[in-house]
């Protein structure tokens, strides 16, 4: 890969800022699921585009790292391409689209289908870090609820779903209990990806730029999705298979391909899909 | 009545800036007893109630509460987390305005279910059954279980709030003007309901009201407050029929005889 752009400090942020963010990350790792405030910086992209994730990535990335960026599962969408190029330019690091070759994976909305390995770090972009926000608009109160592990009211939302729809309809950002202690928003990943967080061998870091919070799941942390005894947590299932690679067990996107409403189902994880196609044409 | 009080209030005081809202109020409440606190607006009734509920920190005094487990604790000195846990389990609160005690954006069932879920219930079916049973108990059609409280009338909202306060079967219920803002016929029905529930469940109640009629119907004992102090207390009928303190006499004489 090319050398870093000489006009920037390594990975854009100055060293003091990186140290400050690393301290927040260490605290977050020490208390899994707890939201650590940090002095978030202005980044050269708008809030909501991944400012929190970028700051976390910038603070942990080293010259020998290999970065993958995904947006909605794809490596080739605008946001993913821009962020990957940003770090190639400011840190001169190698980038990849292969999940198993990456050391750091910054993501929005998905966890890769390929199982993560020990040593890999996932960085999530988080729009709203507070799982109690819809229930309790006051920050002072929600912090108190966290302190006292006072989470019973969170079930009101699940109750309402079942009462209205007959099942829990929360499809993304499905709340989880971390290590039996802190309630956490897993960022807007589909609930299909929630089981991948449970006891994952990879380190998972969550950065919220607008709200200036960092939280983390150290490797092998138990993560349990909230549910009722008689309505256990389940993930989405499709009757179709991916029409590119034929995968029957990955998260599928439904794409309308003409004006007559014809639909096509394909893997949301582009790397997973491409890898399967290559393997098939090779054999 | 048992010999030990459920609640023992000892010289409670609260000051808001220059104004002394409550000055050294003491009383005891026995299990199964309904105590009404009457007095004009600004006499410190609601502040006193909020201090008992742990919603307002007192400047001085103790709130000794005999817990279900047995030991007596001072709610005013309890760490916050313990206080919240205890209040949630053993003390119910009914607000004057049902909007303060309900979540208007979720269904009636979820409103009744929330305290049970907060207490640890995780079985949807049994939460729902409990909610439906309580709706029936407060005379709301169980078919309205999934309706939003915003679509209920004022009287129904108040009954829903009462169901929410009582579903965890607290030992002490604090009520702040539970019949305020309701028309007379709805008030009468609500009073009937409250009387029956209190008798059935054997709960102890501290009831704040400025309506002497409500006090006479519900309360065993009456306490009259003026300017943050208790000026007279005793058995309800006795205080109302033979008031001694000039303020109580004024209060009783200003009610229109129905």
Task: Explain what this protein looks like in three dimensions.
Chain A has 283 residues and is of the alpha/beta class. Chain A contains seven helices and twelve strands. In chain A, strands 1-9-8-5-4-2-3 form a seven-stranded mixed beta sheet. Chain A has a three-stranded antiparallel beta sheet with strand order 7-6-10. In chain A, strands 11-12 form a two-stranded antiparallel sheet. In chain A, strand 2 (66-71), helix 3 and strand 3 (94-95) form a beta-alpha-beta unit. In chain B, strand 1 (7-16) and strand 2 form a beta hairpin. The mean pLDDT of chain B is 91. The longest helix of chain B is centred in the last third of the chain and has 18 residues, at 184-201. Chain B is globular. Chain B has a single domain (7-101, 171-257), classed as Rossmann fold (3-Layer(aba) Sandwich). Chain B has 258 residues and is an alpha/beta fold. Chain A binds chain B through residues 144, 147-148, 150, 152-153, 155-156, 159-160, 162-164, 228-231, and chain B through 80-81, 84-85, 103, 106-107, 109-110, 113-114, 117-120, 122-125, 127-128, 145-146.
Low-confidence stretches of chain B: none
CATH topology of chain B: Rossmann fold
- Tell me the helix content of chain B: 25-40%
Question: Biggest interface and which pair forms it?
Answer: A-B, 17 and 23 residues
| Integer-rounded radius of gyration of chain B | 18 Å
Share in helix of chain A: 25-40%
Oligomer: heterodimer
**Strands across the major sheet of chain B, in which order?**
6-7-8-3-9-10
Classification by helices and strands of chain B: alpha/beta
Q: Let me know the average pLDDT of chain A.
A: 94
- Rounded Rg of chain A: 19 Å
The CATH superfamily title of chain B: P-loop containing nucleotide triphosphate hydrolases
Stretches of chain A where pLDDT falls below 50 for ≥5 residues?
none
Number of domains of chain B: 1
Number of strands of chain A: 12
**What is the terminal separation of chain B in angstroms?**
33 Å
